[in-house]
Design a protein that fits this description.
With 164 residues, the chain is mainly β. It is built from two helices and ten strands; from the N terminus they run E-E-E-E-E-E-E-H-E-E-H-E.
């Protein structure tokens, strides 16, 4: 079966009536061109103008008008807890590590180096499997990238970075 072309997306809240869904990990939700297969078995070719960060709840708009709901897939993560979560969060952010921030815990991708650093500052970690929905960038939708802060910040970025 020839994949249906997809050259557009809709953000969460800007669409309705999905025909199907596709489950993608955090890393898998950062793409420009890739063939995907929906949970119902429909192949489609994503061919976006630029590399795009998608979130749980966004949708791919297929050339035939169908919408495919983006679902955050379960993946291997670390649950981080401790007596001083703001301080722990600062250390995670200082390493530009994507982080899901909740009232009583932080969630990050599994990384034994970061886990060791967290243990050294008094944090507890526990391996979990769950969907990963980290905080987006402060200057608009999506991910923060690298350490270069020399560019101007505005809501729509023209970055095509693969480091997250």
């Amino acid at each position: 079966m020839t994949p249906i072309l997809c050259q557009d997306i809709r953000r969460n809240g800007d669409w309705s009536d999905a025909a199907d869904s596709v489950a993608l990990t955090y890393d898998g939700r950062f793409l420009r061109r890739k063939v995907l297969t929906s949970t119902g078995g429909l192949p489609f070719l994503v061919d976006l103008a630029q590399t795009t960060s998608l979130d749980h709840g966004d949708a791919f708009v297929l050339a035939d008008g169908q919408m495919v709901h983006v679902v955050a897939a379960d993946e291997d993560l670390l649950e981080v807890t401790g007596p001083d979560l703001p301080r722990i969060a600062w250390h995670i952010g200082n390493r530009h590590t994507p982080c899901q921030i909740e009232a009583d815990r932080l969630v990050i991708q599994r990384d034994h180096v970061i886990a060791k650093m967290l243990a050294q500052i008094g944090a507890a970690t526990r391996e979990i499997t769950a969907s990963f929905r980290p905080e987006g960038g402060a200057y608009g939708h999506g991910r923060t990238h690298g350490h270069d802060h020399s560019h101007s910040h505005h809501a729509s970025h023209d970055h095509d970075h693969a480091d997250a």
